[in-house]
Amino acid sequence: MTRQVVAFDPAQYERHPIHGDGRVWTETNCYVDIWIELLHALGHDPVAALPFTVAIDFEGDQWTFFKYPLLDLYALYGLDVQELNIWRPLVVHLEEQVSRGRPVLVELDSYYLPDTAGTAYKRAHVKTTAAVTEIDVEQRRLGYFHGQGFHRLEGDDFVDVLRLRQTDPAMLAPYTEIVKIGSTSPARPNDVALSLQLLSRHLAMAPRTNPFVTFRARFSQDLSALLEQDLDAFHQYSFATLRQYGAAFELTATYLAWLASHGEPDLDAPRGMFQAIAEAAKMFQFQLARAMARRTPLDLSPITEMGERWACGMEALKARYQ
Question: Same domain for 213 and 243?
Fold first, then answer.
């Protein structure tokens, strides 16, 4: 028996424009990507909850692995997200919670996720988060949001991704959350006003000093070691740094465009600053890849320029909304 929160055909599913053509960063990180599509599928606008992106920082060895704050999801959409205690086989919990109309966010192994074909599927064991909204235990079928859309797996992939052949007692249960869907309407008239309140709060949480200054200093220290490493090291370093802030600030630009479309004036300048950071981060990623491949020096001035744009954009937003 198939149990579903929402019914979609993967071939017919229309993903959110954030995952459409023309984006600089087609993917952000696994957690934000699934929330974008899950909110979209539930009838909500995921852009309204993007103010949190203004508060990301350089954390010393990486940029903030940014996520939708759970309190923001409740405030805007009435979604109550709680951790699920895995005390029975994972498949039993999934069937129970999905039958209750609750999406389940669970850490899975990309090795068994067919939507990662060409990267991790049957190639590498990589932890990722997916949102399960459909399960049929008898037919061994699983429907889930991951990456840029909605997908379905079955057969041996179902058995392996849910660890039905697991025999190692030392294997830890995956971190799992359930999304309790309340009665809040997805189209409330005060969404913009409430979103602006969240923006003010997250601006107050933003770095007080320019994070690109400390990032450049750390990057200059890391570069000599990076130039001696392989492509895998590039992907890991780039994901932890350039992709995180590049994707986050493109979402900031998307959010400011959304505000402008809802009547907020004079946002073109800060929106342009954050969009320029996203584009510069992608270009710098290509430059880093070439430098590592050729073992040649890398000009770090683009980081300084990104920092200048960050300062201008943040100054404009804080002057108006904080």
Answer: yes
Buried/exposed 112-122: b ≥16 CB within 10 Å, e otherwise: bbebbeeebbe
Nearest 10 degrees: CA dihedral of 14, 238, 315, 33? Answer: 20
Indicate whether 160 and 195 sit together in one domain. no
Residue appearing with tokens 């984006």: 23
Measured from the Cβ of residue 68, the count of other Cβ atoms closer than 10 Å reads: 23
Q: Are 73 and 49 in contact (CB under 8 A)?
A: yes
Beta strands in the chain (DSSP E): 3-4, 79-83, 104-109, 127-136, 141-146, 149-154, 176-181
CB 149 within 8 A of CB 13: yes
Q: Classify 145 in phi/psi space as left (phi over 0), alpha (psi -120 to 50) or beta.
A: beta
Rounded Cα gap, residues 125 and 45, in angstroms = 33
Contact predicate 102/5, CB 8 Å: yes
- Is 73 part of any domain? no
Model confidence, pTM: 0.93
Q: Are 65 and 29 in contact (CB under 8 A)?
A: yes
- The pLDDT profile of the chain, 322 residues, written as one tens digit per residue, is 889 898 888 989 999 999 998 999 999 998 999 999 999 999 999 999 999 999 999 999 999 999 999 999 999 999 999 999 999 999 999 999 999 999 999 999 999 999 999 888 999 899 999 999 999 999 999 999 999 999 999 999 999 999 998 766 667 889 999 999 975 555 455 689 999 999 999 999 999 999 999 999 999 999 999 999 998 899 999 999 999 999 999 999 999 999 999 999 999 999 999 999 999 999 999 999 999 999 999 999 999 999 999 999 999 999 999 8
Same domain (yes/no): 218, 308:
yes
Both tokens assigned to 277: 């950071």
Please check whether residues 207 and 119 belong to one and the same domain.
no
The pair of structure tokens assigned to 35 is 């929330």
